[in-house]
Specification:
Shape: globular
Number of domains: 1
Helix content: 40-55%
Oligomer: single chain
Bound molecules: 3-methyl-2-oxobutanoic acid
Strand content: 5-15%
Order of helices and strands: HEHEHHEHEHEHHEHEEHH
Largest sheet: 8 strands, parallel, barrel
Number of strands: 8
CATH superfamily: Phosphoenolpyruvate-binding domains
Structural class: alpha/beta
Distance between the termini: 35 Å
Number of helices: 11
């Protein structure tokens, strides 16, 4: 079973690890079989499961329901679950909602933001709840960004992201996710912090990689993001199966062939 200690060892040894989003039991079983290292019950379910155009409508009840469905069907992965939009603005709300996700089967709570999360990160860590802080393109802030845009470009933005990452790790964050940032910035953050860093659209130098499951199975509504690869129709998936796609993703991340140059931003 993958734990935070496993991921810390992976970082130390330079072993790249995988994460996929997952929202239900059958896919959780298939990911178990493919030995996907970590699973994220992402609030991206608002888009790929519920059909919304952002993650904002997702509720804590939705997250608890999907986390429980996944957790009861996967014994091997470290399970991360998102606190959804506006469910962690106040400390009491954040604590109550984190408890619900942990009791549903999450091992780590993921939250979006920067240094403003430090007090919450420390409070949860002291209460036995590890956090993963998601930086860069944080989809819950789409209305602040004015769209889904690359973050951390330019010296000032890069310096801010790097110092936010260091601050939340100093506050006790156990993991980081970096989304849609230039590859050299993601590399700098990964080297600067002691905890494992998971990237999506962040180049090949983060410790782990995450993709939205539907994206990597070629189920994309609208424009295909640059960082996505379709592992289902990849010719190396000789069984043409979903299990085969998961196994190929696991193998490609481990051996360092995914992500490639064309999946990253500069
Ligand atoms: O909700 C989600 O799926 C995520 C990943 C894109 C990292 O946050």
């Amino acid at each position: 079973m993958t734990t935070l200690s496993t991921l810390n060892k992976f970082k130390k040894d330079g072993t790249k690890f995988t994460c996929l989003t997952c929202y239900d039991s059958m896919f959780a079983r298939m990911m178990d079989k493919a030995q996907i290292d970590t699973i994220l019950i992402g609030d991206s379910l608002g888009m790929v499961v519920q059909g919304h155009d952002s993650t904002l409508p997702v509720t804590v009840d939705d997250m608890v329901y999907h986390t429980a469905n996944v957790a009861r069907s996967n014994d091997s992965a470290l399970i991360l679950a998102d606190l959804p939009f506006m469910s962690y603005v106040t400390l009491p709300d954040a604590v109550i909602n984190s408890r619900r996700l942990m009791q549903a089967g999450a091992h780590v709570i993921k939250i979006e933001g920067g240094r403003e999360l430090c007090e919450l990160v420390t409070t949860l860590a002291q209460a036995g709840t590890p956090t993963c802080v998601h930086l860069g393109l944080t989809p819950q802030s789409v209305n602040v960004f004015g769209g889904y845009k690359i973050q951390g470009r330019g010296d000032a933005a890069a310096d801010k992201l790097l110092s936010d990452a260091k601050a939340v790790v100093a506050a006790g964050a156990a993991l980081l996710v970096l989304e849609c940032v230039p590859a050299d910035l993601a590399k700098a953050v990964t080297q600067a912090v002691a905890v494992p860093v998971i990237g999506i659209g962040a180049g090949a130098d983060t410790d782990g990689q995450v993709l939205v499951m539907h994206d990597m199975l070629g189920m994309v509504h609208g424009r295909v993001p640059r960082f996505v690869h379709d592992f289902l129709t990849d010719e190396r998936n000789t069984t043409h199966s979903i299990e085969g796609a998961f196994a190929l993703y696991q193998q490609s991340v481990r051996e360092g062939s995914f992500p490639a140059e064309q999946h990253q931003f500069s």
